[in-house]
Amino acid sequence: MSGDMPHPAARVVMNSGEISRALRRVAHEILERNKGPEGVVLMGIPSRGVPLARRLADSLSEIEDVTIPVGALDVTMHRDDLRRQPTRMIARTLVPSGGIDDKIVVLVDDVLYSGRTIRAALEALSDLGRPRAVQLAVLVDRGHRELPIRADFVGKNLPTATAERVHVRLSESDAEADEVRISGGDR
Amino acid sequence: MTGIVIKGARILGEHAADLVISDGVIQEISTSTLARTVTAGSRVIDADGLILLPGFVDLHTHLREPGREDTETIASGSAAAAAGGFTAVLAMANTNPVTDTAEAAERVFDLGRAAGLVDVQPIGAVSKGLDGAELAELGLMARSRAAVRVFSDDGRCVGDARLMRRALDYVKAFGGVISQHSQDSRLADSSACCHEGELSGRLGLPSWPGVAEDVIVARDVMLARHTGSRVHVAHVSTAGSVEVIRWAKSRGIAVTAEVTPHHLALGTELLVGYDPVYKVNPPLRPTEDQEAIREALADGTIDAVATDHAPHARHDKEHAFPDAAFGMLGLETALGIIVDLLVKPGLLTWADVADRMSIAPARIAGLTGHGRPIEVGAPANLVLVDPDASWTVDRDASRSRSRNNPWHGRTLHGAVHATLLRGACTAYRGQVAPAGGHLDLEALS
Amino acid sequence: MIGRHLLSSADLDRHDIETLLETAASMHDVQRRDVKKLPTLRGRTIINLFFEDSTRTRSSFEIAGKWMSADTINISAKGSSTSKGESLRDTVRTITAMSVDALVIRHSASGACHQAAQWVDASVINAGDGTHEHPTQALLDAYTLRHRLGNLEGKHVVIVGDLTHSRVFRSNVITLGTLGARVTVVAPPTLMPSGIGDWSRRDGFATRWELDDVLYGDDPPDALMMLRVQRERMSGGYFPTAREYTVGYGLTRDRLDRLYAVSPDLPILHPGPMNRGLEISAEAADATSSVILDQVSAGVAVRMAVLYHLLSGDPQQHSQGVSGQDLDRGAA
Question: Rounded distance, CA C15 to CA C179, Å?
Fold first, then answer.
């Protein structure tokens, strides 16, 4: 779909430097909130939540000199909008070796929008075990929630119109420089 | 009764002439001026650009009555035949009960005469109940009012060589002929449903090979030679059969053969969609066989075109392919297929069409009133063909009671303009006369 | 592009197969969890319409549907409906009149699923039609083989047995060919489908009559699939005796020992049910490299993947040619 093509009218709202600064700040906030890295497990939501979770884990390791477990949580099978979109590919769910029971699971995603992905993620997570707490970290919160969900850690709050599209590009998944762009919504 | 005048028809596709018909007979043929004996009140058919042929004779029709009147009756099948340009059809014996007695044959004959649209000539069974074991009462059928001359267990093959030999011998006494459904039952088992070849292998359909036909044709021509009797090969479908028949004719053996429009025109590749409308026995064959039978019809090795018109109820066709009934409709479309496939490309002339669809089948069946030269004094069993008309087959418009029409949606060329049975108009420009009656041309024009 | 139905293995191109196998791998993970139930197909109705018994395939589809929360109903239509005067069309239309999303059909007649797909709005999945095809079996075989051998490109897979009557062979030769494997099929001439010469030339697989030449020749197999041979074929004159078949074409203990001397990890497949002692010896069936139980276990994952790809997604867009790969999850 057109999302992969740079939109002529797209404007950059976060560049590579801003993205890494935001992630470092989020890493600090995670440590602060949880009083250290003890029991923290990062679960990235495919596709772009996974590299973001890895970057956060790297930041946490730099700060605290510990290895933070990172996993991937595919939520496709739990979505409630499967009939409204083309068939989605299913990504692998990877549970870190220590499991998630009694851990503090931080879900990591690129953009928080309607909240439906996170609802599906909470459900998917409950099939895997029973964490002590679940928190949510996102790179961008663009608003327009349809469910009572909010992020615990936000890289950037980005007011948008519903007609606009937010594009996150990461070097790991997109073979492009890190960038967050907005397109559409203009006449 | 007043007569019919056909003006400007090209007889056998050649010179144009006017014909005067009355009392069921051709009274006058005039190539120059308007016929002088046109009387006031005669109906005139303007036949400018049309071709006049002797009415078609179908050696192989399934009319389903008695037994399956839900799928066809002698009346509905007769209507389909008249619409297709036929003036005589031979009704196969595999009804329920089987036409294996004089009484059964006379009943079919009488129902045909009552319908009055074509001459329905019953074919008698070779064996009692088509069971392939004992001869049916061939002689009584021959002596009956129906004067049966063609005998066949069609649908089944007379597999027993001894029974076939006896039948061939026996019918010599009254000039009969055995029409054989050539198919070795051991090579074509009961589950088989299509031609054996690469496609059946891919489709996983149980199948039987062309050689199942060839071996019976070969056996039967040798039996015909031995007995000095006549054998007719129904629905030839393989190159192997053609080879054997060609050889047999070169040796003077009394063998004749027919081919169906669907075997000429439709190939086994149609089975890829598993549509049972294409399930037929003999099965649709590959290109090599199709080419051989077309060539054989063109050069006269195969004598006649026959439809093997086989009506079936929808619910007998809408099964899984292997479970569905064999057979397809053919009476109304035969001419169009032959024109498109053989006349337009120049493989058959109009005189050849007259031969393959009327003269030869009438001769094989011993029908003296049909397939006659178009001349003064001959019975007026005629068909007027519009060679350039094109029409699209609509199965729902069929006069048949059934809808298993493989030609549905095809555009054909060559349409029946009018059919005349003993001078009475049984079909005219798409209209068919009611059973027992004829069309009033005045009202239609 | 995965369409609305899965009728033949030829419906799937290489990309489709890889998509389905990747999805199956995710489903396989789910299978290993304590909680296996996914809400994915909640509210969807799947009917397993079996005109022919098959406990294995039917229960595999049933579990696949249930683990994705679909309402799965089994209907046994065994005993030819032809004898009851009801046509196949009547049967499938009556059943799908009850708002059914998918119809999983097993039928003893080749082509029955193709015909059914013409008559109904539901997705039709071929769970084995006569001696024609069994596409989900070929997918689970490919899944099992990829697990053992990795990419199948150029791998040599040998299929031995009653090819004429095997839907497993027909689907496998297509799917393995699509994945780039080299396939050799081995059978006595009487158990090879008619016209296989032209067919194999066109589709690029090899046909052989001598098993030992294939097993111990210059091009040894990377995997060996033994097909079931029904004893009743003997009465059809396809081969003289079971003993003669086993000597010629069975995976006997002697053949296994000789194979293992060279390649002890050779995957041995069998679609089941096995005729131990006829086409496969007990030693071969239970050999360390046998993947026969892996095949069964992969069956559920593969069928979940098929149901997922046929039943999720916008039904309108299925026909408009939009596939999952086009979805840009970065745009939100």
Answer: 9
Q: Which residue of C has its CA nearest to A77?
A: C40
Q: What is the residue-wise DSSP string for B103-127? A: HHHHHHHHHHHHH-SSEEEEPBPSB
Report percent pLDDT > 90 for chain B: 93
Q: Which residues 43-82 of chain A have a CB within 8 Å of chain C?
A: 46-48, 74, 76-79, 82
- The CATH number of whichever domain residue B79 belongs to comes to 3.20.20.140
| Contact yes or no for A89 and C22 at CB 8 A | yes
Q: What ipTM did this prediction achieve?
A: 0.91
> What Cα–Cα distance (Å) separates residue C67 from each residue in B82, B330, C71, C172, C304?
63, 53, 10, 26, 8
Catalytic positions of B are 308
> Which CATH number covers residue C163?
3.40.50.1370
Q: What is the pTM of this model?
A: 0.90
Cα→Cα distances C61→A103, B370, C103, C298, Å: 36, 64, 11, 12
CA distances from C292 to A28, A68, C31, C273 (A): 52, 40, 18, 10
Same domain, residue pair C127 and C167:
no
Chain mean pLDDT for chain C: 90
Q: Quote the domain boundaries for residue A111.
A: 2-183
Average pLDDT of chain B to the nearest whole number: 95
The pLDDT of B79-108, averaged and rounded, is: 98
| Distance, CA of B405 to CA of B398 (rounded, Å) | 9
**A·C CB contacts under 8 A:** 100
Does the pLDDT value for residue C325 go beyond 50? no
CATH at residue A153:
3.40.50.2020
pLDDT at B287 over 90: yes
More confident residue, C148 or C34: C148
Q: Residues of C with CB below 8 A from B209's CB?
A: 194
Of C115, C167, C199, the CB nearest to B274: C115
Asked whether the beta carbons of residue C23 and residue A3 sit closer than 8 angstroms, the reply is: no
Instruction: Report whether pLDDT(B317) > 90.
Output: yes
pLDDT band, residue C31 (cuts 50/70/90): confident
- pLDDT reading at C84 higher than 70: no
- Show which residues on chain C lie within 8 Å of chain B, measured between beta carbons: 80-82, 85-90, 107, 109-112, 114-115, 129-133, 164, 167, 170, 193-196, 198-199
Shortest alpha-carbon distance between residue B188 and chain C (Å): 12
What's the domain range around B112? 55-365
Residue C90 located in a structural domain: yes
Closest chain C C-alpha to B197 CA, distance in angstroms: 5
Instruction: Using CA coordinates, name the residue in chain C closest to B316.
Output: C87
DSSP, res A69: P
Q: Is residue B42 part of a domain?
A: yes
Interchain contact, A1 vs C327, CB within 8 Å: yes
Helix/strand/coil (H/E/C) assignment for every residue in C214-247:
HHCCCCCCCEEEECCCCHHHHCCCCCCCHHHHHH
